């Protein structure tokens, strides 16, 4: 698998993008590496034209008197679509960077208690500034097998979403376990998800209409990545939600000491 007895990936993260230099990689790692490089390059290449569009739109918006009234609305639509594209490009770059972090890490026993506690601590001030109480509850010591960077990414996505789509109340990260599984729930008192939207939330680039209309939105990639990571470790993810009162994202993984089979090796996400 990736990072286990394979080659060494040298990662250089610069101002403009990510460069990945490889030294004798295993064939699987080579194709994975190529995909990461493509992701990094694509997002980097998108930035130039996007900045050009953005600048032109801003210049035009500064002189509304030169624009036909009928076109004013179209111009702001172009502006917000451009912002959306920039977010996606930035997310893709982030994705490539995080993949680069993961490549050298071999699957190991990961204690979820400190990992989740640290993440919650990282976001607790942001949450408080937003008027939301973010808490962590643990009812067992829980260990799973995988790459810590991947678990961090997965739970960061869920916590960030919960905070992004909650305007009042609280967000709770709950860790527990059953006989064979680690269970993590990220529960919020946010806007919720409509029943007809529930099957779509884990699809790539899907966003609810409400989320789409937000000026500072994400790319719709977060939950697709979250799901890919979960399944990579033989886990499951599902969501229950009531529109207007909140959502609960559940993640389940085989416990480290209950895992007879080794987790599958890293695969390109997507
Ligand atoms: P985004 O970058 O838009 O947050 P995600 O893939 O993380 O992308 O989420 C997809 C969509 O699912 C979001 O746009 C939003 O409509 C919905 N969603 C995700 N998490 C929540 C949540 N905790 N509460 C309400 N809606 C959510």
UniProtKB/TrEMBL annotation:
Q: Which reaction does it catalyse?
A: ATP + protein L-histidine = ADP + protein N-phospho-L-histidine
Stretches assigned to the Histidine kinase domain: 41-257
GO molecular function annotation: phosphorelay sensor kinase activity
Taxonomically, the superkingdom here is Bacteria
Q: Where is the chain membrane-spanning?
A: 1-20
Keywords noted in UniProt: Kinase, Membrane, Phosphoprotein, Transferase, Transmembrane, Transmembrane helix, Two-component regulatory system
Which EC number applies?
Answer: 2.7.13.3
State the protein's name. histidine kinase
Q: What organism does the record attribute this protein to?
A: Halomicronema hongdechloris C2206
The stretch of the full-length protein covered here is 162 to 431 of 450
